[in-house]
Amino acid sequence: MDWHYIQPVDIHFGNGMLSCLSEQIAKLGGKRGILVTSSSFIENGLVKRLTEENPTTIATVYSGVSPNTDIKECDECSALIRKDKNDFVIALGGGSVIDCAKASAAFCLDNIPTSVYFEGKAQLPVRKLPLIAIPTTAGTGSEVTRVTVLTDHAHGVKTPLKAPVFYPTIAIVDPELTYTLPKYITACTGMDALCHAIEAYWNTSHHPISDAFAFHAANLAVRYLEQACFEPKSAIAREKMAEASLTAGMAFTLTGTTSVHACSYPLGAMLDMPHGEACGLTIDRFLRINAQSDKDGRLKRLARAMGYSDVEAVADAITELKFRIGLKNDLTHLNLTDGQIEQLVKNTQHPSMKNNPVPITEDILRNVYRSMVL
Ligand SMILES: [Zn+2]
After folding, report:
1. What residues does CATH 3.40.50.1970 cover in the chain?
2. Residue 58 contacts by C-beta under 8 Å, 6 or more apart in sequence?
3. Residue 34: its H or E element
4. Which CATH architecture best describes the domain 10-177?
5. Residue 350: predicted pLDDT
6. 179-370 — its CATH code?
7. How confident is the chain (374 residues) per 10-residue block, as mean pLDDT?
8. Angle 95-191-298 (CA atoms, 0-180°, nearest 5)?
9. What is the pLDDT of residue 158?
10. What spacing in Å lies between the alpha carbon of 189 and ligand 1's midpoint?
11. How many whole angstroms from 197 Cα to the centroid of ligand 1?
């Protein structure tokens, strides 16, 4: 088996690690940075704290990022970076914020609208401004991946862009930043991490390093997600979910994702569902589908390593976990029409699908979506 391993992000992990931000800015030689964030961190005072601690080096704040980052927000952020002549970027927030910062840190140097890259009409850049990613959720792993997931709401399209330029330069992972996350966000983001781990593991391009990270992350996520939801200040649960998110990110950035994420993009773009909840809708369903042709027993080994007798038991446990932590297991509340289901099937033809260990036909997809509306 031939494989390649790279992890270029300088990672700093631990409770209270946010306090090393000034030191990391100095390490980059940053003089006039932009802090990319969402409005909630202005409201809770964290932006004020960071700008007071770094009065000269954080020169600009962009807080216009929404959940499911729109390509227009990347344009706004890039324009601001050019206007203020920022020389580095800090991302403080969940996956959407980090993804907006990743895209803007690269696209700002070329002055080409994000839509051009999003539609594949220009080669992705190779240069970017240095980027410090500080996740405030535990799930996307975006702080260590070469992926930025963007949405064109005007056309109902959500898609990941992948290139080495999107690796952050530095990641500061401070589990204490997740203590105030509401239960629902903890549940959605944690489910995303669990899906990243399982999809990296069963991925057709898995290799020994991605397997090691995926095993570790799947175990942690299944063990600590519920506790993180119900005991938000549990130091152990929050730390272990941050670790799960990070290691799942390190796994899937090597392999890509598969069927579960391919379905999550139309679910997110057409129904505006949170990414992790959209992934959670299909992970147990695809576990059952992929288990049917687990010829080499890899999935069974994962199930045993996660503490279950077989893959069906893992799927059952995830279905039950969704109910307990308040994530949807179907779409019955939306009264989807047959036409909308066909649209979901059509929009699921994402390249990630080819990484799935079982070829997924339109009929299988149709059945998966139909099972959510019965
Ligand atoms: Zn994801």
Report:
1. 10-177
2. 33, 34, 35, 50, 51, 90
3. strand 33-36
4. 3-Layer(aba) Sandwich (3.40)
5. 85
6. 1.20.1090.10
7. 92 98 98 97 97 97 93 98 98 97 97 95 97 97 96 89 97 98 98 98 96 97 98 98 98 96 91 92 98 92 94 97 97 92 92 94 96 90
8. 115
9. 86
10. 8
11. 10
Ligand 1: distance of its center to the CA of 255 in Å? Answer: 13
Distance 31 CA to ligand 1 centre (A): 33
pTM: 0.95
Report how far Cα 221 is from the mean position of its chain's Cα atoms: 14
Give CA–CA dist 85/89, Å, rounded: 11
Distance 180 CA to ligand 1 centre (A): 21
> What residues have CB less than 8 Å from 87, skipping those under 6 apart?
30, 31, 32, 33, 129, 130
CA of 192 from ligand 1 middle (Å) equals: 5
Cβ proximity of 222 and 194 under 8 Å = yes
Longest CA pairwise span in the chain (Å) = 59
Residue 244 Cα to ligand 1 midpoint, Å, equals 13
**How far is ligand 1, taken at its centre, from the CA of residue 253, in Å?**
11
Which amino acid would we find at residue 230? F
Q: Do residues 296 and 206 lie in contact, with contact meaning Cβ atoms separated by under 8 Å?
A: no
- 255 forms beta bridges with none
